[in-house]
Design brief:
The structure is a single chain. The chain is built from 13 helices and eleven strands. By secondary structure, it is an alpha/beta fold. Helix 1 packs across helix 12 and helix 8 packs parallel to helix 9. It is globular and about 60 Å long. It starts with 29 loop residues before the first helix and ends in a 17-residue tail after the last helix.
Length: 366
């Protein structure tokens, strides 16, 4: 897709050429776009959610290093968009969340490994914040595994440990039997403690507010909301109220604002409005980006694929975001959360043994 700023102007004589709400006429000024590219060279984007594994599954053939028109994400566009790290979702369709959930998740893990292995010049599978830096220094885009669906662990701490040994770093709590509108069950609390011990981050997007509040109080590591914007700006079931944003900021977790038309709005300015709001309510250390590309969601026309991040950063520069705030938004906040989880896991593993077992009938009681 050609860059929007390459489209020639076609204003007729006498026609009003200042239509601020038209996304095709809201292309950032060249100065802001150039500054955005410079900043992203130093602090690339750590994208909190990519649906690429599920999008690639049905394709008979693809080449992400050369370029792939069938998806929103490939190596050339990741480099054009200055994406340095990408969280690859292992979420499952509803029909695979029953008895097949564990097997389907392992199949997605196998797919991810094969994709990375067949694109070694562009992608590298990583686990830690330090490995992300190493991948970037080698000119590779770091691939982080997660979030996975809560159904993937099948109410078993042992399966959680196996998935973590295969590289899983983020687990979604939405839809878990042990994390419902009543809060966390006793087993759910043990699951959070074991996730902390392993360094697996909790993803609370789509989980009930009672669960979010309880996990914020219980978890020793920051939590993620991988696809949540500001409910005060645009109501949506997965968007967070100001009260929850404030709690997330106090816990130093991350609200990763999705670049989707349904949750954030149809233009780059709408997405920027959410980022402004989260920065004000929760603080600049609480906001990050979630492209949500290849997830089946529609995106603003001016943020159509992974190459378009500079246009979002240019809009934020226009709004007087500082270089420090932008470096936190794109890169540093995600690095901080991963480092915190790694440190907490190392400390916990030295003093706590793995917890045996799975959820039983008695554990389902809150």
């Amino acid at each position: 897709m050609a860059d929007l700023h390459d489209i020639p102007a076609t204003t007729e004589v006498g026609e009003d050429d200042s239509l601020p709400d038209d996304p095709f006429l809201s292309v950032p000024d060249t100065e802001f776009l150039e500054r955005a590219h410079v900043l992203l060279d130093a602090y690339p984007v750590a994208d909190g959610y990519s649906g690429l594994p599920r999008a690639l599954g049905p394709l008979p053939w693809y080449d992400l290093e050369l370029g792939e028109a069938a998806v929103d994400t490939d190596v050339p566009r990741l480099r054009e968009g200055h994406v340095g790290a990408l969280f690859w979702s292992l979420d499952l369709p509803e029909q695979e969340r029953g008895d097949r959930a564990v097997g389907a998740t392992l199949e997605q893990l196998d797919l991810v490994r094969r994709v990375v292995e067949t694109h070694p010049e562009g992608l590298r599978l990583v686990r830690t914040a330090g490995q992300i830096i190493d991948a970037r220094n080698c000119g590779r885009v770091a691939v982080v595994l997660g979030p996975a669906s809560a159904a993937a662990v099948d109410d078993s701490l042992g399966i959680l440990r196996v998935l973590n040994s295969l590289g899983l770093r983020v687990l979604s709590l939405a839809g878990a039997d042990w994390a419902d509108r009543e809060g966390l069950t006793r087993f759910g609390e043990e699951m959070i403690r074991e996730m902390n011990r392993l360094g697996v981050l909790a993803d609370l997007s789509g989980a009930p507010e009672t669960v979010l509040a309880r996990v914020l109080a219980l978890s020793k590591t920051p939590v993620l909301c991988t696809r949540s914007a500001a409910a005060a700006v645009r109501p949506h079931p997965a968007n967070l109220s100001d009260a929850l944003l404030a709690q997330l900021g106090e816990q130093r977790g991350l609200c990763m604002v999705p670049l989707t038309a349904e949750q954030s709005g149809p233009t780059v300015r709408d997405v920027a409005d959410h980022l402004d709001h989260v920065r004000i309510v929760a603080g600049p250390e609480c906001v990050a980006l979630s492209g949500s590309y290849d997830s089946g969601a529609a995106h603003p026309r001016d943020l159509a694929d992974t190459s378009r991040y500079p246009h979002l950063i240019a809009e934020l520069l226009r709004r007087s975001w500082s270089d420090t705030e932008l470096s936190l938004l794109t890169w540093e906040n995600v690095q901080r959360v991963l480092r915190s989880a790694d440190f907490t896991a190392r400390a916990a593993q030295g003093r706590r043994e793995p917890i045996p077992g799975r959820q039983g009938p008695a554990d389902a009681e809150t």
